[in-house]
Amino acid sequence: MGLFSNLINKITGGGAKVTVIAENPKLTGIFKVNVKAIVADGDLKIEKVYLYLRSIEKTRVRNVQFPATSTQSAQQRDVNGEEEVSKTEFVVAPAQTLTGKQEYNWTADVQLPPNALPTYMGKNAWYEWEILAGLDAPGNDPDSGWIKLMLVN
């Protein structure tokens, strides 16, 4: 692999393609999470394989009236809010060097805290859970992106 390709992978996180699958995620008890990485052309030195599990509360207030100002006419629009309520990191595997063009699989046991709230999808409020798997590598970490989980009692 050339120097330029190596630099691009560090900047873009393209050193590996990472996917994550939660097996029967649940609010209470332990569930398994599978992480898969397919490494690009060159070897990839990582500090760890990690999972982030987070909950997000989202709200919408409909038809909020905004008065006119000296630069803007009166408006009516929806106002959206979002807050990350919790975020937990799980270390799935320690530092290692991943060989180029190889596939790696790891499994982790995940358990939510006892006060975790279930997924809720209402008309004006949502409570969502998301998971992300990543490789702690130089530059931009290759990761799966945030994947929504449905966690209910």
Q: Could you describe the 3D structure shown?
A:
With 153 residues, the protein is mainly beta. Helix content is 7%, strand content 58%. It has one helix spanning 3-12, and strands at residues 16-23, 30-39, 44-46, 48-66, 75-93, 96-98, 103-111, 120-121, 125-136, 147-149. Residues 9-13 have low confidence and may be disordered.
| Ends apart, CA distance between termini | 49 Å
Shape: flat
- Given as residue ranges, the uncertain stretches (5+ residues, pLDDT < 50) are 9-13
Taken in chain order, the helices and strands follow as: HEEEEEEEEEE
Strand content: over 45%
**Total domain units:** 1
* Assembly context of the chains: single chain
Brief overview, please?
The protein has 153 residues and is mainly beta.
Q: Layout of helices and strands, plus pairs?
A:
Layout: H1 3-12, E1 16-23, E2 30-39, E3 44-46, E4 48-66, E5 75-93, E6 96-98, E7 103-111, E8 120-121, E9 125-136, E10 147-149
Antiparallel strand pairs: 1-2, 2-7, 3-6, 4-5, 4-9, 8-9, 9-10
